[in-house]
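I hope you will forgive my troubling you with a question about protein structure. Could you please explain, in whatever detail you think fit, how the structure tokens follow from the sequence? Thank you for your consideration; the sequence and its tokens are set out here.
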Amino acid sequence: MKKTLLTLIALGTVVVAVAQTSEAPASNAILVSQKRDGNVVTSHYKIPHDSGKQAEFDVHYAINRSEITPTYSNNSQEISDMRDFMAHTKDTTMHISSIHIVGYASPDGNAKCNDSLALQRAKSLYVYAASCCPACANVATAHKTLHWSDCVPVVEASSIPDKEAVLAILKSTSHTEPQKERALRNLPKAWSYLAKSVLPQMRYADIEFDYGVDEYFTRTTTVEPTKPAEPAQPQQPQQPDPVVVEEEVGVIIATPQHDGGKRKHKKEKKGKVVGEYEAIYW
């Protein structure tokens, strides 16, 4: 029947694509980190993906049964792979876009009973999946009873006895499903082959995940060397502005007092001391 697709699951580990390139990143790339070493800048980017990958698991059921039996058929391996995949759905790099669960019943037997079996098989797989993966909790299920014509591809590739007669019955458009079953039962060897090798593979439930895994890549670029910073220049002391005082006897140029042994004067004007300064007369 259908085969399990584990594109990015290997030995229980999610394989994240990592590439190194010097090309410009895609428009939806997200810068994760960046480091500079001399004139080489190394940038790490993430490109998010929500879909594009698929994983599918089949659980088979015994005839007229709808409960999951881990030891039946290839269930042990399928369940192990399914649980491993579900564990990785918690990884932040994986994003599930949709989940589909469908239950199936083989065409032999009562049509009404087969429809109920298909429905119950879908429900049993749903309950199991929801207990392992929170993302499955709100998934809607579907079910389907397969037809005898669905056996054609398997029979064509088989070594079933009375092969041509069996194919003629399976492909007939003038017989109902019950009529086809009666005709096939009239071919004992062919019916034994169908009951053992074909019909059991049609009693199953299928769960399919559509998902995406974020892609990571590294980009290296060369930039201009960083110029060393120029040393700070010491500040020059600010020279005070000269003070000009007009006097009756001339002009006195006064500058702030400083030590140096020169004469110091106190100039009074209208009975007030103007200030202490050095005076130069001319």
User: Anything to note?
Assistant: Residues 1-18, 267-273 have pLDDT under 50 and may be disordered. Residues 2 and 58 are 7 Å apart (CA to CA). The longest helix spans residues 111-132. Helices lie at 75-88, 111-132, 152-156, 163-171, 177-185, 188-198.
